[in-house]
């Protein structure tokens, strides 16, 4: 093991010794050194989402965070190449904000169940059915959907975005649970018309006189798995546990939790509080990353499933992304310009 690899191994071991097996740390320290050398050679920046596996998360990213924080870093970078260790919609957002830069996604299979739940034509149909109603689109969508929107949001600023519009009615897409949680927090009555109702011009008994939010039935395949029974079972075994739920969980789960917030808000909450036990109802890798950053705090495990799309991003593929310039993200300019307006409005709100 050469000096650079030994130094990287020691750095990773200090953080991850209780999370990642030593044999894996040794192997991935070698990959990290190779990646960092190529990163410097290509004048690249690596952005790592909070859902990345721990060995990657704590070794190669220049910046880590949630969708909003990484969108800001993408908008500010002066590097020639952006490698996004996340999923496709995130890499598209980086390209939307940096049209002249090369944006790479280490895996071409890193999609998103939410992004795939809605199309640009679905949004156009909603706008025809509800003319003049502003469209708020969760950042977990593809570029062509963002292009049909008035403004984007993340889980951390969704309420602020909705309130900023000062509109009696908004269309909020595509996450059903996030929409329900935002509706509850803002006091809005929400409906979920079906595609058939939208295309036929019929949304049942509801009219815009008694509807303040129109939603869509997309869900995150990870967060929808957490249930009230999970919370009851954990509290029965650990009565003093503090439970944190992501806003993509169902409203019932969010209501039963002690705190709900974006990934960055969850991280801050754990850092700034003291409790006998914490339980995070979110993607499993993030729980590992928080446990590694807070070794003095007791993190319980309720790992239903890793996000299969985030799990596609590996250190091996990140190395190959830089080595072979893959996979290049492209967004047609006509779509990019319109999508950029929605994303930039989101960034202005913060």
Note down, in words, how this protein is organized.
The chain starts with a helix and ends with a helix. Strand 8, helix 10 (195-200) and strand 9 (213-214) form a beta-alpha-beta unit. The protein is built from 16 helices and 12 strands. With 350 residues, it is an alpha/beta fold. The radius of gyration is 21 Å and the shape is globular. Helix 2 (22-41) packs parallel to helix 15 (315-324) and helix 5 (88-97) crosses helix 16 (333-349). The longest helix is centred in the first third of the chain and has 20 residues, at 22-41. The protein folds into 3 domains: 3-110 and 310-324, Rossmann fold (3-Layer(aba) Sandwich); 115-219, 3-Layer(aba) Sandwich (Rossmann fold); 223-293, NadA-like (Rossmann fold, 3-Layer(aba) Sandwich), CATH 3.40.50. The model has no long low-confidence stretch (mean pLDDT 93). The chain is 46% helix and 13% strand. A 5-stranded parallel beta sheet has the order 6-5-7-9-8, sandwiched between helices.
């Amino acid at each position: 093991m050469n000096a650079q690899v030994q130094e990287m191994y020691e750095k990773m071991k200090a953080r991850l010794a209780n999370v990642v097996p030593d044999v894996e740390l040794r192997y991935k320290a070698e990959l990290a050194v190779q990646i960092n050398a190529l990163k410097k050679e290509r004048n690249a920046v690596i952005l790592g989402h909070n859902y990345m596996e721990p060995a990657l998360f704590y070794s190669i990213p220049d910046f880590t965070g949630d969708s909003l924080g990484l969108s800001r870093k993408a908008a500010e970078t002066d590097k020639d190449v952006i490698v996004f260790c996340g999923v496709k919609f995130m890499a598209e957002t980086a390209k939307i904000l940096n049209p002249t830069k090369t944006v790479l996604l280490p895996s071409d299979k890193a999609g998103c169940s939410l992004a795939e739940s809605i199309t640009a034509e679905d949004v156009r149909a909603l706008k025809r059915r509800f003319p003049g109603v502003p469209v708020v689109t969760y950042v977990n969508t593809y570029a062509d959907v963002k292009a049909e929107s008035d403004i984007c949001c993340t889980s951390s600023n969704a309420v602020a975005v909705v309130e900023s519009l000062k509109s009696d009615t908004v269309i909020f897409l595509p996450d059903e649970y996030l929409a329900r949680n935002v509706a509850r927090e803002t006091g809005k009555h929400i409906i979920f018309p079906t595609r058939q109702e939208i295309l036929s011009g019929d949304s049942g008994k509801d009219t815009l006189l008694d509807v303040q939010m129109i939603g869509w039935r997309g869900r995150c395949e990870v967060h929808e798995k957490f249930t009230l029974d999970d919370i009851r079972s954990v509290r029965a075994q650990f009565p003093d546990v503090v439970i944190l739920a992501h806003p993509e969980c169902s409203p019932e789960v969010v209501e039963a939790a002690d705190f709900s917030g974006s990934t960055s808000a969850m991280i801050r909450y754990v850092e700034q509080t003291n409790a006998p036990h914490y339980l995070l109802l979110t993607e499993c890798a993030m729980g590992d990353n928080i446990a590694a950053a807070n070794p003095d705090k007791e993190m319980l495990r309720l790992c239903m499933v890793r996000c299969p799309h985030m799990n596609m991003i590996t250190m091996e593929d990140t190395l190959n992304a830089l080595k072979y310039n893959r996979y290049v993200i492209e967004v047609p300019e006509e779509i990019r310009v319109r999508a950029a307006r929605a994303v930039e409005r989101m960034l202005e709100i913060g």
